[in-house]
């Protein structure tokens, strides 16, 4: 399970502000949004390749 709470990502401008969601194990999810809206940046943050500027991400209830 992945739990993201109040994620904020900032570069030259705010990319993502106050995003929260829970992804359950064994499910398939999709991410759809316009170009330049921060989809890849969010996935990089979930993968640990980019540090979020706010909020928390935990995996299976581990910080």
TrEMBL record:
InterPro entries: ABC_transporter-like_ATP-bd (IPR003439), P-loop_NTPase (IPR027417). Residues 17-60 form the ABC transporter domain. This is ABC transporter ATP-binding protein. GO terms for molecular function: ATP binding; ATP hydrolysis activity. It comes from the Bacteria. Keywords: ATP-binding, Nucleotide-binding.
């Amino acid at each position: 399970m992945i739990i993201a709470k109040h994620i904020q990502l900032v570069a030259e401008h705010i990319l993502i502000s106050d995003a929260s969601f829970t992804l359950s194990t064994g499910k398939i999810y999709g991410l759809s949004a316009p170009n330049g809206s921060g989809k890849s940046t969010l996935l990089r943050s979930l993968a640990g390749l980019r540090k979020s500027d706010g909020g928390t991400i935990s995996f299976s209830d581990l910080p």
